[in-house]
Amino acid sequence: MWSKLKPEELASFSAFMKNPDMVWEWYQYRREIVEKAKPNKGHLAIAEFEKFYDVNVVTQNVDDLHARAGSTNIDELHGSIVRNFALIVILFIITKNLSLIKKFHVVQNVME
Fold first, then answer.
1. What is the pLDDT along the chain (112 residues), one digit of tens a residue?
2. What pTM did the predictor assign?
3. Which domain holds residue 66?
4. Could you say which of 43, 66, 78, 105 is catalytic?
5. Are 90 and 104 in contact, with CB atoms under 8 Å apart?
6. Is 78 a known active-site residue?
7. Domain total for the chain?
8. What letters, b where the CB count within 10 A reaches 16 and e where it falls short, cover 54-68?
9. How many other CB atoms sit within 10 Å of the CB of residue 47?
């Protein structure tokens, strides 16, 4: 099923707002794949460097493999697929005279 859909159509706030169940299912499918992955020699070597050097890992990967390899100082540019955070959404509703602004918040949901 997922091969018929484009990731950019699922990995967006607008996709979530249109069909949250489908987006959650897609992310669950991706998490199951990531859970089966193992850190490779590169991940392990970088983690080993921490024993001797001050190492800061900056990654675009969302797979959590650096952490599972043992790295502790990690900046995940795109987050991690193993942790879900609902966005704190502020929706501004402005009347035509700009006098009324309402804020709606979606509470942060952490699932580990």
1. 667 778 777 877 778 778 888 888 888 888 899 999 999 999 999 999 999 999 999 999 889 999 999 999 999 888 888 876 554 444 444 444 444 444 444 433 444 3
2. 0.66
3. 2-111
4. 78
5. yes
6. yes
7. 1
8. eeebebebbbbbbbb
9. 20
